[in-house]
């Protein structure tokens, strides 16, 4: 087998010495969003940077897709999906997406939760009667479904064995047999610990609760409704369109070809194979709202629940939602997941507030997809912000608002009503930052306004403020549901 690897590596070296094929662009015409001058300029720079970086790093192949809201607006392939046969990487090239598969297992769990078939806080042992493992701390709580998909179960990373060295993975029967002899690493809900075993058990729960094997459930209830026809839950060695996986670059020699692996019982944690074009449909799902039905395989409120932090790391810069990683990148909050199998490195990230998603799939152990994701956001986010910024029409205040302007006091503080930027505005002058904590008053009835906060924590946001007037239309009191202010002389 080693001699075979060396021979293929020599062929790969010759292929890399030749120019890579031209990048494969999606569709004959770019999406209208991508044709906007700011976006087109950013994509031109991104395209040039990726081509140069892939060449400089001598990467075999890479496919990238940019999703804006409900559309795959730009996608390209660079280099080769197969060096020996010189097959170019394209947006339709299939890659093993590895741990991105965990998002599909988490989605299945949430579908079953919404259908009333399980609760996130159900103990795993209630759903899997055979589940048994030694506890390193008997005083800890029961491991729940929520713990499995947030990586807070305290379970070991893998089913027992050096699976990732010998590339022999346990069957389901092996997992059920050896699990009672394993031991938790932490009590549940005390530490964040990534665990393929945990998500594998979540897949077992999907099968147990739904009555369908995990692969069949994912195919019927997620892939088909989303139109992900090219995605395979159980990919096969040598399947058409599948990128060949390569080892890392070693100076002075070609890359080894990595073997295709079957990860057995851990399939719910990392088995799927997909393309940029198909994954774009899953990314767009994350940017939709509304009730479940058809291609809306989860209601909008459930998607937002999955995106919210369930576990926050001490630096407050990253954490974990229900299946999704969550992190801050500057002013942007991004959700997503990465994946890693022999010869395949993958990453998706989504900035929900910007309705922007990036998919990067590579076929090398040193593919480093996050580097490309970060560069895409660095170039596109500022351009996207400019595109969606609509010049504001100057606001014109109602003349009668002038009667509300003044200073008002409550025993704990003073507040002022001003007309600022054409809006009736309440400020607390003694606040550390009166501008960021201001309240905009939106009229909803006679002398009654809804308080709309511009800061993140102002308590009365969304509630009503009423100006009580005397016969001369002079303010006698400013009232909220909990207290009132009196005019200051």
General description of the model:
The strands form three sheets. Strands 1, 2, 3, 4, 7, 8, 9, 10, 11 and 12 form a ten-stranded antiparallel sheet that branches. Strands 13-14-15-16-17-18-19-20 form an eight-stranded antiparallel barrel. A two-stranded antiparallel ribbon has the order 5-6. It contains 13 helices and 20 strands. Helix 4 packs parallel to helix 9 and helix 4 packs across helix 10. With 489 residues, it is of the alpha+beta class. The chain folds into two domains: 288 residues, DD-peptidase/beta-lactamase superfamily (Beta-lactamase, 3-Layer(aba) Sandwich), CATH 3.40.710; 89 residues, Lipocalin (Beta Barrel).
pLDDT averaged residue by residue? 90
Structural class: alpha+beta
Q: Which sheet architecture does the biggest sheet show?
A: 10 strands, antiparallel
- CATH topology (fold) name of the largest domain: Beta-lactamase
Q: Report, as a whole number of angstroms, the end-to-end distance.
A: 92 Å
Question: How many structural domains does the protein architecture include?
Answer: 2
Total helical elements: 13
Q: Give the CATH H-level superfamily of the largest domain.
A: DD-peptidase/beta-lactamase superfamily
The CATH architecture of the largest domain comes to 3-Layer(aba) Sandwich
Strand content: 15-25%
| CATH class annotation of the largest domain | Alpha Beta
Unreliable runs: 1-19
Number of strands: 20
Helix proportion range:
25-40%
